[in-house]
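Tutorial, part two.
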Amino acid sequence: MMTTTAKPPQKDKMGIQKKQTILSILSTAWFAFLGIIIIFPVFAGLLASFRPGRELIRKGLSVNLDISTMTLNNYKYLFSWNADSKKYFMWFKNSMVLTITTVVLTLLICYLVAYGISMYVFKLRNIILFLVIATMMVPFEILMLPLYKQMIDIKLINTTAGVILPGLCAASTIFFFRQYMIGLPKELLDAGRIDGATEYGICFKIIFPITKPAFASMAILSTMGAWNNMLWPMLVFRDAKKFTLPIGLNTLLTPYGNNYDLLIAGSMFAIIPIFVVFLCFQSYFIDGMTAGAVKG
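Running the prediction step on this input gives:
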């Protein structure tokens, strides 16, 4: 005998739709609230960059839009090529070189490590993966002093290499790439070998194009980390000419005087590189984050 499944009553359908609508409204309102909280300090800083530094001392960060106090003098001072602005753009250049080098090398090395862990089967694979995950649980503050002593021993203090090398093999980046690639069909490797491709050819010509969303996601996160990194470069660099932007901006606040005009305008201008990177990779960002979270 053929059996037919009973359709849910119309009232149940309306009830489900009503619940979904309410949940959608609540989630939208919640994320809008979080967005306002996140954007508030950026907006307050943007307004402060168009006000004299003395207004920041008197009133602090504020979102009150007072046209009478707003001026472009801070940005004119930033681009006037005086002694202070020359130092600022020297710090800016140092940060650009350090960030680009760090991101490119980190993505390349972490991709190769994750490729080996996810695409090949060997005896120590699980142990290596365990060590990668274990290092994610160790705070940098615990590793800071041993790393600093190591940089002294190998004479990399006050060098760009001393800042870059300790963070090249980032455990979180390796794990993200591994999670992304573990879901890729292994038949791709066999097909490449049948076509005569070398192992390096399979890695860079077959698998690499597929992992572009993961690279875009990690490029944004790695750029943010390298650009905003202050603690480790401050320990390694001793020469003021090698300071990065976060360290340089921090030197504008001294017991003898505070250059808030350059500090606020320079801080807002420093956001532009991160914003540009996000615009370049935003089309891949959501796909990469989602795929890396659910694969495996």
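The first helix runs from residue 10 to 48. In part three we will examine how such features are distributed along the chain.
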